Amino acid sequence: MAYPKKLLSDNEVIVSEFRPHWSGILKEGALIALAIVLIVLVQINGWPWWISVALIVGAVLIAAEGLIRWLTTNHVITNERVIYRAGLVSKMGKEIPHEVINDVSFRQSEFERIFGTGDLLIESAGTHGQSRYSDIPDPEGVQTVIYAEREKRMLAMNRGSAPSSIAEQLETLSRLHDQGKLTDDEFETEKQKLLGGS
Fold it and tell me: For 42, how many CA atoms within 13 A lie in the half-sphere containing its CB?
């Protein structure tokens, strides 16, 4: 389920949106595969039809909760905040503005590295504290996206309140460009905005 656009602010845009990694529903997938194998065996051996029905109903009931949780969980990164949203009937969510994020770290076990998944830990100021998210696809890539958007957000906010000099803002732009967090075009556009306003 995509994040509702009506919940975005006027100038807010979605940079990245994804569900938890598919490895988070491996158990459910294995259970359904096992049920299919058993149903085939039931059909081959000519056993009563109700055994197949019982296997289908049992597999669906056991796997349904995990599958629904996976389908209704969204991670969204916008140019203003990091959003976590989950639930079908009863919903829960958490939003962390970029400007309060202090640190973003990730952790992957050997197994998780094979599948390209891992955990993400976001440390933020104020009442947010630490937020840990599991089954994140490409957690290192997500970490980079959050840092890049945080830097852009801070730069935009600094430009609005003008607490730093043009030279300092150009230095920040240059650093982001060197780190690959701003493309050549983005760098030139932001540089011209700064120089045009001086």
Answer: 16
